[in-house]
């Protein structure tokens, strides 16, 4: 009698489907299989096996089983936990976990080698090729490095100066060597590292907060803790999560240097072949160190012993689309399930994490000084009411003076403005219309490099029109407010000789470009860098001594719960880029609200005072971390139908103690891609099982096809 296999598919379905186990396949729990669904062939995971009975219809058979080891039990348990917490189907996180399973395998590559033979005829182009061909390289890479055409390479191959060979791709990961190097930690770093090593040795679930000022050497500390974990357990795997792809290359370089072997890399910027290789390395246990973005948390680790969440406060850990989750919180859960050590590192930890540390749930390790002789920068506030910039200008006289002094000393400056493009708003001076995308309630941002107006929310873009699309007035469109491109323009006018560059996700859309910019900055080839938060985090620029924050008040304007916390973190991090080496740094914050608690705390460098005040405010209102929060977003093309559904949903809300429901109200973005949006906010006491409440509520309605209902537990942008 054939057995019945329950197979969880990577789709947003409420449960696993049953299939027949073909004769001789001998499935086991966790096996990764191919199963038919309608006309599709999907990969899924065996979550149950039973003797076949009770089915009145013949079941479709499982088609195939993948050669890889089964999905580890802990990974499956984690996926199920995450789905329940996010009030979503387990197939959603499973899809993330299986993302590498079916990517194409790396193919052999044709690479060119220099044979050592001298070319019959020497030309400058040929000389450049020989200089660039230091190792095996693809023809494209070599042609680009030497700035020559393909025909030059072909000529050299014909002459036997270069030789082409098919090279098998690297499919394995070398084992990191904990003794490859032994960096000397300073006494406070060594003490923190010892505690982490002790926690790892004790075994079981352990959590620690590595709370150290910018430049205190947190990375150095966790590198050594990783070395200890690898030395303690020869099969241990370690995951290091980073908030930003732009940071991965620098961290990978540090790991490679420390352990003499490159770690596996996992984020949206890697190729399908790299994805396949990393995935196989993780599930087989061969990839011992993985450096990745938030989705790496769902990888099927064979033996995960330690997770580091670097810059744990960073909002990028919150995934807002598709399967919604907060990777920092889930990292703690994953560590619990695996019985592993989790280390949360930051100079400005989130209130949630500080709350847990204060309660003794996390070991709290503090590094209060920068490493070596580097001092924390001096922070001052520039009151824009007293020393305003000129009209239609954004840099105030004190900031311009500081830039001039820094430039004169041959040091670097960073002008920080968390706004991409040239101007955040285009306004018609004739009719007063603010230009928005046709189907979305958000302003179009002017980008001058590309001459386009772009909706940052949906990606809609159009050429900047000559006349106002509303009233038809000519030459009436005014660019209002600054973005990084506009600040760059101003800096160029002020310092025409200086080397100035812009770093934002528009200019740095691919990791290679970002890497090149970081190298140029480190090498001192840029005098003034105008940057969004893409450059404010994590980097180490030795000669950077001035950070000017163009609009310190920017983040405070949004009405959301974390506005003050986030502004504090972002500006403290941006300021933390200054003076990380011998030369002292300074930070100037341009603000219209110097008396605001955030500005005062930044100027006094008194994080603890800020945290205490913010905690008190949260406690008074029962907001996270003192309570829980969730949002339900409803969207649909038809306003009346959406309203009716929202009212109906409100009417069937279960009664529950310790829960307050606000709404339905228009969502802050009430129209996106032609869909109207309504929102409920739900606040709950900590003792309430909020996911269970939300699941019960949702089960009381049938959502019509035209309406989308998204549940966001612990919402970040609302
Ligand atoms: P953080 O992550 O806390 O901002 P990093 O680990 O990046 O700090 O360290 C800041 C700088 O100080 C880096 O250039 C790092 O190489 C250097 N550094 C930190 N600790 C040491 C140490 N013990 N020995 C030598 N250099 C160190």
UniProtKB/TrEMBL annotation:
Reactions the enzyme catalyzes: ATP + H2O = ADP + phosphate + H(+); Couples ATP hydrolysis with the unwinding of duplex DNA by translocating in the 3'-5' direction
Cofactor: Zn(2+)
Residues the record lists as binding Zn(2+) 2: 455
SUPFAM superfamilies from the UniProt entry: P-loop containing nucleoside triphosphate hydrolases
Source taxon at top rank: Bacteria
Keyword Secreted: no
EC code: 5.6.2.4
One example GO MF annotation: ATP binding
Coiled coil: none
Pfam families linked to this entry: DEAD (PF00270), Helicase_C (PF00271), PriA_3primeBD (PF17764), PriA_C (PF18074)
UniProt keyword list: ATP-binding, DNA replication, DNA-binding, Helicase, Hydrolase, Isomerase, Metal-binding, Nucleotide-binding, Primosome, Zinc
Similarity field: Belongs to the helicase family. PriA subfamily.
Subunit record text: Component of the replication restart primosome.
HAMAP family: PriA (MF_00983)
Name recorded for this polypeptide: Replication restart protein PriA
Taxonomic source organism: Phenylobacterium montanum
Lineage: Bacteria, Pseudomonadati, Pseudomonadota, Alphaproteobacteria, Caulobacterales
